[in-house]
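Issue 218. Parser rejects a valid record. Input:
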Amino acid sequence: MNNGHFTYLLRVRYSECDAQKVVFNGRYSDYADIAVGEFMRAIWGDYNELLNAGFDNQVVSYAINWQGPAHFDDVLACEVYAKHIGNTSFSFSVDFKRVDQEQTIAQAEIVYVMVDASTHEKKPIPAHLKVLLEKGASGMVVNHAGVKL
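Output the parser choked on:
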């Protein structure tokens, strides 16, 4: 399951499925946002610490591609890693897989820009945060699915 990336586990709930009995496409945005939020918590700590330091980040681009469906009660492994780290922006890739399979069923790429917490104007990513983004949280698994690993 984990190839060295941070992994967030979740179980698909019935209400997240559409009339075709697969996960509704819009839910992947929710899943990716939660997974990336947990990744940032793992590497940066509490979000309020970032705000208190005068920084925030905003999504400026979100893209997703699907290769297959997820269904009710599937346990998904959302593997997160930093794909690009620039001066003011950074991007994450989120690979969605069933916990017991290696096949990617969807992949999201989310681009963030670092901003001033008060003015929301772009700011360079602080050096210490860049280091943490580069280091990542390899091998860490956050389990909200009730699965014992």
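Fixed in the parser; the record now loads. The longest strand covers residues 104-116.
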